Amino acid sequence: MAIVMKNTLDQIRSVAGGSDDRIVKAKRLAELIQKLGDYRWVGIYQVGREVVSLMGFSGPGAPAVATFPISKGLNGAAIKDKKAVIVGDVRKDKRYLTAFGNTLSEMIVPVLDPSGARVIGTIDAESEHANAFSDRDREMIEQCAQAALPLWLLG
Question: Where on the phi/psi map is residue 116: left (φ > 0), alpha (ψ -120 to 50), or beta?
């Protein structure tokens, strides 16, 4: 797995720092991250001053809500605390914003600016299985977020 992860991180760095359109890069990054685990859907989000906006995704379709207030949902919790949020059963968490009717687990990893002072993006992974995400998944996605940092910085 270490070789696969290293290759994926190299690909993520290349895509994030490349010259393609930002939306194209975000979609490609979501595709690369989705292949790392049993993730039904992966979304790449931009965090603005007041709203969180979907830039790209990989999975069966667009979420029901693509833009929402920065304080809402599990994304809002990850942004507020500047740390990953893992929910094993979203049906039991009132913060969950329904994106797909069959999502049971969700993990949000915040992307911090280089100073660590603010969240500039998030990576959202979802599964139709309960308790789908482990600390290993979180660590992998956190590494992906660091590798993908140019996507948010080069805007």
Answer: left
